[in-house]
């Protein structure tokens, strides 16, 4: 029977980086995916990623057929479309990818580094014995079941988290993610008759009426192609995102006579990362660990950060002996205190936006209660104070919509509080329970204050 040092479950962005990192360090790695080799990398996505991720991860920037277009920033429209913010900055400079070609490159790099691929192989469940994960049970295309054993399993199966959901509760890993923390999305890649006015900017439209709890987007791709999609929070009674896109967005004259190149629906978690992403012999990365930016839903970059950190930690643990939960814990600490703190702050910002109606958003953007700089800082995960502009001050002389101002101020404070809490993530499993209780109570306070 085959025994690997590391089994990577899922060959998405997170899984491929984990496999490549471990294989480059000399580990015997197996990467498993349900898709055929040639289809790996195909994913319903907005296809946008910041350049900084490539620099931080030491990855070659997208080139040739991987690159649809470079982007210089984003435009954010108010619900009435009367106000438009153009947000540019070093951290918003990036790329629109050909997702399939990029995924194929990541897979090739993992295989070239020495990882073995089992494609067309469905992962059924983890093999857990005496509280330790020793591998996975798979089913291949002809229906035969196999045990694949390894010293550590990296769960990177994306949103549906095939392995995480089947772990035993004594590992202290949350099996479930609440629907309110998930966006249901539908997106198409379309060919337009005319190019967009400014194909260097990604367009984001905020409107509770059309995309409650989310937004809709038009991202320029190569030539006259666009990536157009709509996401809604999965709160009771949420509308069908495809129907909303067809009814409210694709009726815009810009789409007149356009044709569909690709289409599909998928989900994205929009919350802070899981409280704990390791157990004995198991680590979780990417969407399966909720490593996604809760504001814009960007998850390729953080999944690759997670994949790299997880592999680095596993390499160290296996050098020392066994991949126990204690040996793997530092992966939690490194991810949660850094990118996790940013996600937690942005989750608060997300709750704030989800509880502002269109009228309040129109008003807030018109009077620049939130400036472009605030949006940039907030999206980067920095501390935000929501500086009040002169225009806003004048507007508030008449004390109209004073409640919005108070809510913004409260949100900025709560974002700083939750970030500080995430920076205090415990250095050992022993501190987890206390930290969890504190975090839950802080999140309760946040939702009570912002949902009012
Ligand atoms: C509509 C939409 C728009 C988005 N836009 C953006 C964007 O513009 N920028 C951005 O950065 N992110 C975006 N995201 C998020 C981004 O796509 C994900 O966060 C990212 O792909 C996560 O990578 P991952 O490696 O965790 O999982 P995935 O890329 O989902 O990979 C998981 C892999 O596991 C395999 N798998 C799953 N289950 C099994 C099983 N049981 N057996 C075998 N194999 C299995 C799958 O085949 C897949 O290859 C968007 C998401 C959606 C839904």
Structure explained in plain terms:
The chain is of the alpha/beta class. It has 3 domains: 3-65 and 99-176 and 271-339, 3-Layer(bba) Sandwich (FAD/NAD(P)-binding domain); 180-269, D-Amino Acid Oxidase, subunit A, domain 2 (D-Amino Acid Oxidase, Chain A, domain 2, 2-Layer Sandwich), CATH 3.30.9.10; 345-450, no CATH class. 35% of the residues lie in helices and 25% in strands. The chain has 11 helices and 18 strands. Strands 1, 2, 8, 9, 10, 11, 17 and 18 form an 8-stranded mixed beta sheet that branches. Strands 6-5-13-14-15-12-16 form a 7-stranded mixed beta sheet, with helices on both faces. A 3-stranded antiparallel beta sheet has the order 3-7-4. Strand 10 (132-140) and strand 11 (145-155) form a beta hairpin. Helix 1 (13-24) runs parallel beside helix 3 and helix 5 (300-320) runs antiparallel to helix 6 (325-354). The protein is globular, with a radius of gyration of 22 Å. The structure holds flavin-adenine dinucleotide (FAD). Residues 10-15, 32-35, 40, 43-49, 122-123, 156-158, 160, 162, 185, 187, 229, 266, 268, 286-288, 292, 297-301, 303 line the site of flavin-adenine dinucleotide (FAD).
């Amino acid at each position: 029977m085959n025994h690997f040092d590391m089994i990577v479950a899922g060959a998405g962005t997170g899984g491929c980086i984990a496999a490549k990192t471990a294989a480059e360090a000399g580990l015997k790695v197996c990467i498993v995916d349900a898709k055929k080799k040639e289809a790996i990398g195909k994913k319903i996505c907005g296809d946008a990623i910041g350049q900084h991720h490539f620099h931080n991860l030491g990855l070659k920037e997208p080139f040739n057929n991987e690159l649809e277009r470079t982007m210089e920033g984003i435009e954010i429209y108010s619900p009435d479309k009367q106000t438009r913010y153009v947000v540019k900055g070093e951290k918003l400079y990036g790329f629109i990818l050909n997702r399939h070609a990029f995924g194929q490159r990541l897979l090739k790099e993992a295989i070239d580094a020495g990882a073995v691929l089992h494609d067309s192989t469905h992962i059924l469940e983890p093999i857990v014995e005496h509280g330790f994960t020793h591998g996975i049970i798979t089913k291949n295309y002809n229906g035969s079941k196999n045990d694949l054993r390894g010293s550590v399993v990296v769960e990177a199966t994306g949103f549906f988290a095939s392995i995480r959901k089947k772990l035993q509760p004594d590992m202290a890993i949350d099996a479930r993610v609440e629907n309110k923390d998930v966006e249901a999305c539908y997106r198409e890649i379309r060919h337009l008759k005319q190019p967009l006015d400014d194909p260097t900017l990604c367009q984001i439209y905020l409107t509770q009426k059309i995309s409650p709890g989310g937004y809709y987007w038009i991202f320029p791709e190569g030539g006259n192609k666009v990536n157009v999609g709509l996401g809604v929070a999965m709160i009771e009674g949420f509308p069908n995102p495809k129907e909303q896109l067809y009814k409210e967005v694709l009726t815009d004259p810009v789409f007149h006579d356009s044709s569909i190149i690709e289409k599909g629906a998928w989900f994205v978690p929009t919350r802070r990362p899981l409280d704990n992403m390791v157990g004995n012999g198991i680590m979780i990365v990417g969407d399966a660990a909720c490593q996604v930016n809760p504001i814009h839903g960007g998850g390729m970059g953080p999944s690759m950060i997670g994949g790299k950190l997880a592999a680095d930690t596993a390499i160290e643990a296996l050098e020392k002996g066994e991949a126990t939960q204690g040996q793997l814990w530092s992966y939690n600490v490194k991810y949660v205190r850094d990118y996790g703190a940013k996600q937690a702050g942005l989750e608060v910002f997300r709750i704030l936006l989800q509880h502002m109606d269109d009228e309040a958003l129109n008003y807030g953007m018109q009077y620049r209660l939130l400036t472009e700089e605030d949006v940039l800082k907030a999206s980067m995960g920095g501390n935000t104070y929501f500086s009040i502009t002169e225009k806003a001050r004048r507007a508030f002389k008449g004390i109209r919509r004073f409640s919005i101002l108070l809510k913004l101020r409260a949100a900025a404070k709560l974002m700083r509080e939750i970030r500080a809490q995430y920076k205090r993530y415990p250095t050992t499993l022993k501190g987890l329970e206390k930290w969890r209780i504190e975090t839950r109570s802080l999140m309760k306070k946040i939702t009570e204050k912002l949902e009012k």
